[in-house]
Amino acid sequence: MNYRHSFHAGNFADLVKHALVLWLLKERQARSGALGPVAVLDTHAGAGLYDLSGDGVRSREAEAGVARLMTAEARPPLIETLAVEVAALNPQGGVRFYPGSPVLTARALRAEDSYRGFELNPPVEALLREALAPWPNATGQAGDGYEGAVRAARGLKAPLVLIDPPFERPDDYVRSAETAAAVLRADPTACVAIWTPLKDLETFDGFIRRLEQAGLSRVLVAEARLRPLNNPMKMNGCAMTVVNAPSGAEAAAAEICGWTVQALGDAGGRAEVWRAG
Ligand SMILES: C[S@@+](CC[C@H](N)C(=O)[O-])C[C@H]1O[C@@H](n2cnc3c(N)ncnc32)[C@H](O)[C@@H]1O
């Protein structure tokens, strides 16, 4: 297992993912009168919190992402929400620390809510547990997150599930789609958000076809293309695909992807939010 998210933490793709996860969490909390407390399942949790100066120099990805987020002049509300979270972790100013999905989520939980993140890599899992120590209702767990999330979803009501694989393995697309389908079968009121890179169009289209073939409905696709998708060797953009997307998700995703492309993209960049399935 080679993937180290610390090299990528705080890049544009993290900003898109984390701003939308924060919105989904707050939206679900607003419906807890009808649905009960919020349970978040994170199939690929990572280390939880990243010290961007860890390797001596902040990565170019973080420079082009969160560093620009924090100095941007005009931030729309959902981008501002993420910036406020980053600022809270850096009380001395600057951007040394960046939250992964576990810490970002844990900080937003109410006492009755819960978070469970799965991590396969033992040293990373140890960091995850350490990062989550201040929050008793947020736990890190060793093991395969695809299987773990499906098992855990069976005992929960309307969980919010984040699927965020490294896409190092060729079966990550298939397993993400199968996991989303299995979670929705276990609980049709679940909401599943899947992060994917955008390199070339065929890979992504194949993934969306797979979700459609699984019969998943209310699928919202939020794309932030920083540049044209003509180089399959490069992450030219990213997408968050939300299955069983709540109302309001379209506008939220448009705000987040629109800002990301306009503030961080090239002239050929484009934000697109559309419905599949
Ligand atoms: C993209 S990072 C996760 C980032 C995190 N979700 C965030 O937003 O901060 C992917 C992580 O998944 C872990 N991983 C890879 N395969 C896994 C699997 N099958 N189950 C659980 N974790 C896995 C890797 O070790 C890596 O730490």
Would you kindly provide a written description of the structure presented here, covering whatever features stand out?
With 277 residues, the protein is α/β, with parallel strands linked by helices. The protein has one domain (5-276): 3-Layer(aba) Sandwich (Rossmann fold). 42% of the residues lie in helices and 19% in strands. The chain has eleven helices and ten strands. Helix 1 packs across helix 5 and helix 1 runs parallel beside helix 6 (101-108). The two termini are 33 Å apart. The model has no long low-confidence stretch (mean pLDDT 94). The structure holds S-adenosylmethionine (SAM). The site of S-adenosylmethionine has 22 residues, from strand 4 and helix 8.
How do you describe this structure in short?
The chain is of the alpha/beta class and 277 residues long.
Helix and strand arrangement:
Layout: H1 12-30, H2 32-35, E1 39-42, E2 49-51, H3 60-63, H4 66-71, H5 77-88, E3 97-99, H6 101-108, E4 114-119, H7 122-132, E5 138-142, H8 145-153, E6 160-163, H9 172-186, E7 191-198, H10 201-213, E8 219-225, E9 237-243, H11 249-264, E10 270-276
Parallel strand pairs: 1-4, 1-6, 4-5, 6-7
Antiparallel strand pairs: 2-3, 7-9, 8-9, 8-10
Helix pairs in contact: 1-5, 1-6, 1-11, 8-9
Bound molecules: S-adenosylmethionine (SAM).
